[in-house]
């Protein structure tokens, strides 16, 4: 059950507000295992909707789900040189396959005789094991393209963890595709970025900037990484999804060639793309407020909650005669509705709980409403209440759910636009980066300059945006020529 | 792409037939990691339907999904004495959290400085980590019941593995519930067994026997294990799902008490229940034949395949004018249909492929059919073909899909009944157990007798069935009194 001690306000301590909200809204909590979280039923219900919406979109693009092993032989990680640098270091290593009773009688200990010949790594990402598999699946151009995705857990041994944002174990999907041509692979990577952007904006109500990563921020082993970047309420950037054009790197590492229709052997072209439970963090930090979670209706496990206000059973019965048919009607329209007629807690307690949990619309009806043919409607996004006619209530609800979805998207977009500014000099940059937001700046295109800027300010290039002003200029740091402005920000 | 070398017939080598079928029908294959499988897209599509059907049934019972950590502290496993004996021994042990570049330049090696203080075990099942979590969730009777499920991967270090049937890593769901009373927990365990049985029979078309396990076959840590047992085509038993009444064992191990509504502290009552990708093995071995997979329509990723027979483009165009609207109509009815108009392979090759993959209904239409207003229908279950009128074809298909579903269930049930026999003496038992099937025998109820019978014949008690003859008798082995017949069989 949710706890109703007030949340620390965002203005007081944004980070503390976030940590408290995740736990109090019953989304997730720390587990007994360092850095690994428990995703609680309410949080998981949101994740399930995210999964269902994405999965449907993937399948529309011809992607099929599959499952590849959790464990990766250590030697596989060394095959792709950049990949091992990026991922293999901080990871969970399985060295033994058996425990035995402690000879001293204290529980169980590792059996020293059960050491593995080669250590196994819990997947931090699956390019290596998947390309070792694709080698067996691909021999001719007829076998291409392969468009696979898997929903699974992965593990990266992070030292500083935060629920959803950075955890040792997290859930994600990873798509891995194999193509006959470079162009097809590049297009597919771009297509999946569009899928992510569309999903983020339409379902999560999170406005995103699509762009390409600078070399410093590229996925280890990729030729190009595309990303969608979102701005959180504290003005920091959060990378909400990435899609990688991997070139022929993994095909070469695992010797995956195919016979073209001109009877020549060529290496296969690859993409990979993923989003994770990190999206839950983005969701929370984009919309929520000091009263708790604010959920877009398209993702809310409960879209509408109906609370009858009563003292005695006959009052409840009279109210339910109106409210039960309403709930049924809403369910038939595919609206996720819950009626809370419990007498264990007060209406005030219920209201606070549904506010904390971000239920978009709350309906309350008491004796006077019944007499007047009215019902009280409370919107979570604006925290406004109004008493409306019970006639047409279904239509009112349908319209309001759409309106709330649009409103929180627009609010987030307005916030991003208001906190995005052009910066033209290094002096200005050093001041502006201390304030929240995205800085649009010219950059000379070199990793060295990005490194220096990061070292001095902690800001990184979030992406080189696809859209927007393409006027050339001069790098804020070196004064060298720049082809277009890029987004600098402090990032999660 | 599937390979069309003929399968080894079941009569020649059942085990070889199974192994070949799994690979050739594109269901799964061995990975580069010992004992871990790759579930290929076609196999995974079947698993997704299994998941969706079960998940819906769980939610109807009030169960909510959640996610608990992959890794379990070693010490947790020692808390429940039987549990550690049953599970902790053969498991993947994580001992380190970092790799480093090999000082000798050969790839990467384990960093000896990154040894974990306490080793972590990849979950073989999650009772311990979940009950350590429930401790924080439960304080009063108001917090009960908790009905959680998770879909995840688990790992048991099996020495002899077979695709789907016994793999080191497998996918499953594990439900874990917490209740205020013994009766409620026992009832819930029984309810979930009913859910499994209903699903197995209605969706998978696998007839099952519901019953309780003998103490020898009980889950490590349970007071009672209920199971559904199915008979494979070779007469062996396969446990298709289990539901455990765990009593207060895990609540006591992790000190999970609650305040009753009479203001007393009591330990919480528990159940757990699971089915796994092993069901894929049961599915294959219940229905399939020497031509390949036979799928029940309710689980088939493709329920109907439509193949136009043509030589030239104009012939194809004429056929598609009829077939495209048919496919659309079927889709609108929720039927999973695929039109295969590719000219890369011959119709004969296509027919063999869809047979191998177990597509329940195949429709083929050529020029003569077009003239006559007919279409050819081929049933996978009976391998029969007939030419029928194109009018009413939608209704014909709907009826046939139902008929196929019923037919393969009935066929499997008839097979089980024909191969289940009462055995009354030890001499008879030793002969009969050499033949395929279930033996209904009296047993004196002691683990010792079961052990001796197993040692002499490899047969085990699959379950003490809930339904059927309850006449008392005398144990086939000891002659001691027995309350009812139990099922002995050789098991997978």
How would you describe what is shown here?
2 copies of one chain form a homodimer. With 492 residues, chain A is an alpha+beta fold. Chain A has 3 domains: 14-287, Bira Bifunctional Protein, Domain 2 (BirA Bifunctional Protein, domain 2, 2-Layer Sandwich); 304-415, Anticodon-binding domain (Rossmann fold, 3-Layer(aba) Sandwich); 420-489, C-terminal domain of ProRS (Translation Initiation Factor IF3). Chain A has helices at residues 14-24, 41-60, 74-77, 81-88, 127-137, 182-202, 249-253, 278-287, 313-332, 347-356, 367-372, 393-418, 426-432, 447-457, and strands at 28-30, 37-39, 64-65, 71-73, 90-101, 108-110, 115-122, 146-155, 169-179, 209-212, 224-231, 237-247, 257-259, 265-267, 269-276, 304-308, 337-339, 361-365, 374-379, 384-389, 420-422, 438-442, 460-465, 473-474, 481-482, 485-489. An 11-stranded mixed sheet of chain A has the order 3-8-9-15-12-11-10-23-26-22-21, sandwiched between helices. In chain A, a hairpin with a 6-residue loop joins β5 (90-101) and β6 (108-110). In chain A, α2 crosses α6. The first copy, chain A, is globular. Chain A starts with 13 loop residues before the first helix and ends with a strand. The mean pLDDT of chain A is 95. Chains A and B meet through β2, α2, β3, β4 and α3 of A and β2, α2, β3, β4 and α3 of B. β5 (90-101) of chain A pairs antiparallel with β5 (90-101) of chain B, so a sheet runs across the interface.
């Amino acid at each position: 059950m949710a706890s109703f001690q007030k949340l620390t306000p965002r203005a007081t301590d944004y980070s503390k507000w976030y940590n408290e909200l995740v736990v109090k809204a019953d989304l997730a909590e720390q587990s007994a295992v360092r850095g690994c979280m428990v995703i609680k039923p309410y949080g998981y219900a949101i994740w399930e909707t995210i999964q269902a919406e994405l999965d449907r979109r993937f399948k529309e693009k011809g992607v099929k789900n599959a499952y590849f092993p959790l464990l990766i032989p250590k030697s596989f990680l060394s095959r792709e040189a950049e990949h091992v640098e990026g991922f293999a270091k901080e990871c969970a290593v399985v060295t033994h396959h058996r425990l035995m009773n402690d000879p001293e009688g204290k529980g169980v200990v590792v059996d020293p005789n059960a050491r593995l010949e080669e250590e196994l790594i819990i997947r931090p990402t699956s390019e290596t094991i998947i390309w070792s598999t694709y080698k067996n699946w691909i021999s001719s151009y007829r076998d291409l393209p392969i468009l696979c995705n898997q929903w699974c857990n992965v593990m990266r041994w992070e030292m500083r963890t935060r629920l959803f944002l950075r955890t040792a174990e997290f859930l994600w999907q990873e798509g891995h595709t194999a193509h006959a041509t470079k162009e097809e692979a590049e297009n597919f990577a771009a297509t999946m970025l569009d899928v992510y952007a569309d999903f983020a904006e339409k379902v999560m109500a999170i406005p995103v900037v699509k762009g390409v990563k600078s070399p410093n921020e590229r996925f280890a082993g990729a030729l190009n990484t595309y990303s969608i970047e979102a701005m959180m309420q504290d003005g920091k950037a959060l990378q909400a999804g990435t899609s990688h054009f991997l070139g022929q790197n993994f095909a070469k590492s695992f010797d995956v060639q195919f016979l073209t229709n001109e009877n020549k052997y060529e290496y296969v072209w690859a993409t990979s793309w993923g989003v994770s439970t990190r999206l839950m963090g983005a969701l929370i930090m984009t919309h929520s407020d000091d009263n708790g979670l604010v959920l877009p209706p398209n993702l809310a496990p409960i879209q509408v909650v109906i609370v009858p206000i009563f003292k005695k059973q006959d009052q409840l019965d009279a109210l339910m005669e109106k409210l039960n048919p309403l709930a049924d009607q809403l369910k038939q329209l595919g609206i996720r509705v819950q009626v809370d007629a419990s007498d264990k807690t007060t209406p005030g307690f219920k209201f606070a709980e549904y506010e904390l949990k971000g239920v978009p619309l709350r309906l309350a009806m008491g004796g006077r409403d019944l007499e007047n043919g009215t019902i009280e409607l409370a919107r979570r996004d604006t925290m406004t209440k109004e008493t409306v006619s019970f006639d047409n209530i279904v239509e009112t609800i349908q319209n309001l759910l759409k309106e709330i979805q649009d409103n929180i998207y627009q609010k987030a977009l307005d916030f991003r636009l208001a906190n995005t500014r052009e910066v033209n000099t290094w002096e200005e940059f050093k001041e502006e980066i201390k304030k929240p937001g995205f800085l649009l700046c010219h950059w000379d295109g070199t990793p060295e300059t990005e490194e220096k800027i990061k070292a001095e300010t902690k800001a990184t290039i979030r992406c080189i945006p696809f859209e927007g002003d393409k006027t050339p200029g001069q790098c804020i740091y070196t004064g060298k020529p720049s082809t277009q402005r890029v987004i600098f920000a402090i990032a999660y």
